[in-house]
Specification:
mainly beta; 7-stranded parallel sheet; 4 helices; 22-stranded parallel sheet; Pectate Lyase C-like
Length: 426
Amino acid sequence: MENMEGIRNIRDYAALSRGGEDWTGAFRAAVDAAEAGGGGILFVPAGKYPTYSIVLKSDMTLYLSAGAEIVFRDDPEGYASVSDVTGEPGDAGRLHCVYAYRARNVAIRGDGTISGSGGAWWAAVREKRQLKGGRPNLICFQECRHVRLEGVTLIDSPSWTVHPLLCDDVFIDGITVRNPADSPNTDGINPEGCSNVRISNCLVDVGDDCITLKSGTEKSREKRPCENISVANCTLLHGHGGVVIGSEMSGGVRNVTVSGCVFRDTDRGIRIKTRRGRGGAVENIHINNLVMERVMCPFVFNMFYSCGDDGKAPRVGDKNAHPADASTPRFGNIRISGVTVTGASAAAGFIYGLPEMPVSGVTLSHVRISMDPEGEPGKPAMMENLSKMKGAGFFIRNARDVLFEHVSFENVAGEIIDSDESVELL
């Protein structure tokens, strides 16, 4: 392929690889040559390529052939700051492993593997060691248009695995993401503030949420909605949540479809989470034709999410009504149909809105939920003062216009629907 116009074989730059020990210079030279030539394909043949960050540019495809493995080094000192690429002093943090900034028509394709060598990064978290600049994401596209990620296998990410940030027209198809189940914050695919995103035919097996839709916190410099999103035909394993919205949702998340997916051994299935102060609205969410097996709780809508910065502030956990304003989050118009759940352990579902802003307009239709009588107790949602549950039904507080239509339950211990006067069922 090295002789074909527009294709640059990374091995043609082997003289810059320090004897094959560090291909950083080789990747940089290949990218510079491609950029000077108006773009093209950076071809990575079979073999192992240790490197630091690879920064892609417009009209460029990183193509990994079968047997190719790009292995990112775990020495923090070898990673520059994101601001070195963006030129923005406010863009603090370590440069990501594969990164593109304000690029158009940028892609990663092929049958090879990208490894983030996450072990050393995870150890720092477990040992509570501060890393100046934090941990890199394995792949981050920032403010890009026409992004493609197809076929590749992504393993052992230091932090989030795939992070499209403020992008438009993102297509992710047929990738495999594998991070150990106990690896911290190794989310699978996290579009944030993106529009027109299609995620399909992926296998995601990670140590945090599998697929998460975000739109920034109240402190984010720019808050754009995450909108017009489809997730289809994916297999989601072991994560804290299968398909998740939030908790960073200050820009809003809307117009989302999730269909034809399988969830297995995830803590939660469909999970929407936020808290006071975040603002934003989650609305027009349509979920259908799912299978869930051995999940702790298949459906969680939680507006008292307590994890992360400011999560322990008194207003977050206060169950009394507060004045509603622009910082009050909203959940509404959520439709769930055609879902089969077997072996759920903690609760069939958990809906907890704010007293000043109840969750509104939730419909479950043609859903079958079977609890596991031998399942382990667990907390279906991360919120203060919540006791563990085992085999519970639907626990609902501060919600209105909630409809159960052709929904069946098996092996529920206690009430099928545990609600109070704060709930209006249709």
